[in-house]
């Protein structure tokens, strides 16, 4: 089985995507150096030097373009979680189209270079023919500048995706500003941005905690609002992807003090909808029990304060008990007794 974190490591192999200007500058500078190293003492050597210039530039461009297409993973082999995230944040079809155009440009330049090599040989003005070839090559490279930019943006986004691993997982969900990031920060080594305004968490953040020598990953998701799926923004859809695609348990945090800016009835409604829509085991926990305006409400499985730490140890113990640990693989007994 290919583990999800192995697939994640593929993104880290994607190097910086050059611009069309950078590609052309690299190719033509190398081409000029090739000409400088040639001894020209007649028509034949002049043709050979221009041919070498053209092939050098073309080979550099085709190799660089081919490398770009090879660096990106086969998206059909990605886990559903990473596929969905890539689709939300960039658009998998758009990436595929750009990669296809890069591949087309590489093949077109290769074919064109061979065509112009034939025109250069025996030509009394090989420099003019080579310059014509360079002009057409430049047009091809400039035409894929939007694709290079899209792939460069995709590369930066994909490399920043969270490192989700195959280990016991806890997802923290709920309305904005109910204390999700504070909870993750309290129980793990994560340091998410925490502030008293909605949608502080712009993407999925990961923290880890160790209980009884077992490491658990705790996922801080962006805040969700109680609205139809079609109206959710890209930030919210990342939370939905985690709930839909990961094997985990879910802590749905609510804020009975309503200091988050949302009424408790709407928070409870969202919590119940999460439980109904997703098959993951879940519990509803009221946060901010330290606040004067806090009040206990029905339909909640417990209460905590991420400010004072009250109730969090008991909650963590309860969450750990909810997660079935993977069974140890059966090992054949050693007939020699060791």
Descriptive account of the structure:
The chain has 338 residues and is an alpha/beta fold. The protein folds into two domains: 156 residues, Four Helix Bundle (Hemerythrin (Met), subunit A); 154 residues, Rossmann fold (3-Layer(aba) Sandwich). It has eleven helices and six strands. It has a six-stranded mixed beta sheet with strand order 2-3-1-4-5-6, with helices on both faces. A hairpin with a 2-residue loop joins strand 2 and strand 3.
Task: List the SSEs and their pairings.
Blueprint: H1 4-12, H2 20-36, H3 43-71, H4 80-89, H5 92-120, H6 126-143, H7 145-159, E1 169-174, H8 180-187, E2 205-211, E3 214-220, H9 234-245, E4 249-254, H10 264-277, E5 282-286, E6 302-303, H11 312-322
Helix pairs in contact: 2-3, 3-5, 3-6, 4-9, 5-6, 5-7
């Amino acid at each position: 089985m290919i583990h999800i974190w192995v697939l994640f490591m593929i993104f880290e192999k994607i190097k910086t995507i050059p611009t069309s200007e950078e590609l052309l500058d690299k190719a033509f500078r190398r081409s000029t150096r090739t000409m400088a190293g040639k001894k020209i003492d007649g028509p034949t050597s002049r043709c050979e030097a221009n041919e070498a210039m053209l092939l050098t530039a073309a080979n550099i461009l085709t190799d660089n373009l081919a490398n770009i297409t090879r660096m990106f993973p086969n998206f059909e082999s990605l886990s559903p979680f990473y596929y969905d995230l890539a689709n939300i944040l960039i658009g998998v079809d758009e990436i595929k189209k750009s990669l296809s155009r890069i591949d087309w440009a590489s093949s077109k330049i290769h074919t064109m270079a061979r065509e112009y090599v034939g025109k250069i040989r025996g030509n009394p003005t090989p420099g003019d023919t080579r310059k014509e070839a360079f002009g057409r090559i430049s047009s091809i490279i400039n035409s894929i500048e939007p694709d290079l930019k899209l792939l460069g943006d995709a590369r930066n986004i994909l490399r920043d995706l969270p490192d989700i691993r195959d280990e016991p997982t806890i997802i923290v969900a709920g309305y904005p500003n109910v204390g999700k990031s504070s909870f993750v920060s309290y129980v793990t080594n994560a340091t998410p941005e925490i502030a008293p305004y909605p949608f502080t968490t712009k993407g999925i953040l990961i923290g880890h905690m160790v209980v009884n020598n077992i490491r658990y990953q705790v996922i801080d998701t962006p805040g969700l609002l109680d609205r139809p799926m079609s109206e959710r923004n890209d930030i919210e859809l990342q939370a939905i992807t985690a709930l839909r695609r990961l094997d985990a348990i879910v802590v749905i945090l609510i804020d009975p003090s309503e200091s988050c800016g949302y009424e408790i009835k709407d928070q409870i409604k969202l919590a119940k909808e999460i439980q109904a829509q997703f098959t993951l085991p879940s519990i509803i926990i009221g946060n901010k029990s330290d606040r004067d305006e806090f009040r206990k409400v029905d339909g909640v499985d417990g209460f905590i304060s991420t400010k004072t730490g009250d109730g969090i140890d008991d909650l963590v113990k309860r969450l750990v008990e909810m997660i079935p640990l993977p069974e140890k693989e059966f090992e054949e007994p050693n007939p020699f007794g060791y």
